[in-house]
Amino acid sequence: MARYFDVHPDNPQQRTIGTVVDGIRSGGLIAYPTDSCFALGCRLGNRDGIARIRSIRNLDDRHHFTLVCRDFAQMSQFVRIDNDVFRAIKAATPGSYTFILPATKEVPRQLLHPKKKTVGVRIPDHVVTRALLDELGEPLLSSTLLLPGEEEPLTQGWEIKERLDHVVDAVLDSGDCGTEPTTVVDFSGGEAEIVRRGAGDTSRFE
């Protein structure tokens, strides 16, 4: 049964954040709010958590998982970014964007796109997410909380708790964070390719 945590959207209680992060470090899978919609998240090397995300969302091995990072210093450990791409991404972050980039050897093989050897990365603009990342001290492996056969992600913490009670370990709720997922931009070929139009403005990449 999932634990439910209600936190303030602008000033999240540090004790609660610490409890949730302890659960993540112990192998837990959480549902948490971001600047685009709710997401599922676990530690980078959590094989069980990755398997549960795949099962919950019915994902195949071509799905791009996202490493949600605190800042560019953390992001640069896991992806290769040349100077031109760095400037383009920096101008758009933090924000509701996911960027597809070539992965470094720090990224576990099971997270990579099987042919491209790429992974998604993002730096969110959300107080609660950033509090989690600050406390965790490493990226949160994530995927949008969009259930199979449904057109929009779940938006209410209580509904997530009700529907995923036996498959996630915790639900962190700070109120409605919208239904629009991130805009996904693929830079793995050097040029910006918009893969998904979402919450982030695409005009800067067109």
What does this structure look like?
This protein is an alpha/beta fold. It has a single domain, classed as Alpha-Beta Complex (DHBP synthase). Helix content is 26%, strand content 20%. It is built from six helices and ten strands; from the N terminus they run βαββαβααββαβαβββ. Strand 9 and strand 10 form a beta hairpin.
**Number of structural units classed as domains:** 1
- The dominant shape is globular
CATH architecture: Alpha-Beta Complex
Radius of gyration: 16 Å
Quickly give the structural class.
alpha/beta
Number of helix segments? 6
Low-confidence segments = none
In CATH, what is the homologous superfamily?
Answer: DHBP synthase
CATH class: Alpha Beta
Largest sheet: 10 strands, mixed
Overall helicity? 25-40%
Give the spatial strand order of the biggest sheet: 1-8-2-3-7-4-6-5-9-10
Q: Which percent range describes the beta-strand content?
A: 15-25%
Question: What is the straight-line distance between the termini?
Answer: 45 Å
Pfam families: Sua5_yciO_yrdC
GO molecular function: double-stranded RNA binding
Protein name: tRNA threonylcarbamoyl adenosine modification protein, Sua5/YciO/YrdC/YwlC family
Domain YrdC-like: 14-200
